[in-house]
Amino acid sequence: MTFSRSAFLAGLRDVAPMMLGVAPFGMITGVAAAGIGLTPLQAVGMSAFVFAGASQLAAISLLGQGAAFWVVVGTVFVVNLRHTMYSASLAPWLRSLVPSMRLALAYVMTDHAYAFSVLRFRREPADYPRRDYYLGVAVPLWGIWMTATAVGAGLGAQVPAGWQLDFAIPLTFIALLVPAVRDRPSALAAGVAAVVALAAQNMPYNSGLLVAALSGIAAGAASEARWSPTTPTASGDVEGEHRQGAEDA
Amino acid sequence: VNDLAVWSLFVAMGVVTLVSRASFLLLQDRAEPPPFFRRALQYVPPAVLAAIVAPELASTRSAAMGPLDARLPAALLAALVAWRTRSVLATFAVGMVALWVLTWLTGGAVS
Q1: Which member of A49, A160, A186 has the closest CB to residue B46?
Q2: Predicted ipTM of the assembly
């Protein structure tokens, strides 16, 4: 398959406005990484391996508290589980690609790459160069994310402790949490998770976060079954996740 | 933090993330995530975020803080900004400035 420059540029054009939100988020992640004593190389290394902002901040927060290895990995896994939905939504559109290419596309998958691609693929004919459009969205985001975490980690390392930059983590999560609480079940999920997290603060290995998150997820899902026993439609999902993931890398 | 431990942690974090991302893309048949899973995933963001934020705000720690905890009021102000603007950057900026002002007002050490 030849490379379609125009499809790549179409993806780039679509994602360009999102860079304004992603760059500061990446910088905050770098600052937070420096705040717990990670070197700039380690901060960028984490971005290169994981490339998922919210899960990186959660991991940084846990690392700063000295959490156990499996608790950090388990938390990252739960935070990033949403990608399975993106993977399932994208699969029918990318089926013609060889497995190694699909794996490469999976590595650069983000909320944006998923949402823009699915919206675009629905409009375009069957022979549309989907791989290149997807790359046009995903690769620039990857570049911005690496650059922004590097800059943030470099800046963060210069800042004295009195500035309390570790506060960046709760602030960023507040900025993501507020729009994520959209209805009664999501409010219940957040409330249960917060209460359990407070009660479970002294659990071994800092596993309280994981237990609290799973409790909140269970509470939200169970209450949704009671309050609105309908599953969301596929199209509603795309719109909702797009909006909700707007700040996430 | 031990360097080898940190890098092996990053590799493990990367692997579990790639598993989710690659999952259905690499499956040959037309597999779909089950409905209960789809439903539960909607509550991952509010639950995880709240589980991180609540203890961060509740704990009174840091010697850099004054006699009064400046973090909770700063966080509440930041939440208001998040609700009005939906902007990570604005929330961050207002929250940090509020924390510095409150720390200074309550006589916390700014070292």
Answers
A1: A186
A2: 0.85
